[in-house]
Amino acid sequence: MPVLEWSPSLSVGVASIDSDHQLLFSLIADVDRAVQEKEETSVIGSLLRSLADYTDYHFAREERIMEVCADPALANHKEYHDRLRAEVGDVSHHYADDPDGVDFDHFRGMMREWWVDHILRVDVMMKPFVLANADKVAAIGEMPLVDLSGIEEDALSEDLEWQI
Amino acid sequence: MANLDWRNLNVILVEDNRYMGVLMQAILRSAGVRNTRILTDGASALEELKVYRADLALVDVVMDGLDGLEFAKIVRNDKKSEDPFLPIILVSAYNDVKTIRAAIDAGANDFIAKPLVPATLLTRVARALLAPRPFVRTRAFFGPNRRRTRTPLYRGEERRTQEEQDASAGHVH
Hints:
Number of domains of chain A: 1
Largest sheet of chain A: none
Structural class of chain B: alpha/beta
CATH class of chain A: Mainly Alpha
Strand content of chain A: under 5%
Strand order of the largest sheet of chain B: 2-1-3-4-5
Shape of chain A: globular
Shape of chain B: globular
CATH architecture of chain B: 3-Layer(aba) Sandwich
Largest interface: A-B, 39 and 36 residues
Distance between the termini of chain A: 44 Å
Number of strands of chain A: 0
Radius of gyration of chain A: 18 Å
Oligomer: heterodimer
Number of helices of chain A: 7
Number of domains of chain B: 1
Radius of gyration of chain B: 16 Å
Distance between the termini of chain B: 21 Å
Largest sheet of chain B: 5 strands, parallel
């Protein structure tokens, strides 16, 4: 059984947030399985880095939603986010430096406890604010992961022969 | 301002590690890509290209069977190739100069090192599609120009003959 499995009982009533949670749960489960199956470090490293980046992205999206909805719980909610953001970022960096030095049992337990508690106790409180500001929230739902403006200019100024 | 229609892209992912295939698919989905196919070796990817009109291929270098370098060479050079101009990004945990050079010489548009970083993957995909290198054909190579820009200070030997340059002018993608 995966370390975390999303189910409708964990829905917070906001499609973009539910969809982020599903992606994050699936990344956490893949990290856990890949570690147990002793996958190559480049595979586990890719999964951890992606988990860290999507955790950042998801929290940024959620905080933006709370901001436009003038949700009074934002400051408090952000503190929870900052703690997990730092933990996941640390694990990803730590693994990149020393793959054998990461305590994945601790990681698994922390992910399971933090996410279920956070969604059921903290995230669900957003729902009434989101419902009252549906239009503003819909616009944030399309927030891109990366800013691709100026990419053509970057490409043209790139040095010869790529990275070599 | 770059504007890529992610939702209508068809992307073929060639990767024999199931975690990496699914991860690349998830990263692309997060950007809006709805249509991807995962194949686990170069030979089955070549078969898939006969029935699937891919806009881009993300291909692992090291795979059992037909690997990523061979896949790229066949797509670029085989007379029966479905699309010699297919944008191909090679991906590998081996990011030494030799592997990157081999990727360039196989005709890849770009190279991404593992561990994967989602933003890097999306940026490189966007760049391959929005700012592609023009294709060149020489006696020994067909593929994206290995230099993005011409430098007026280049004093080395000009390896392409005028005839080759004229011939390749008709193949600019």
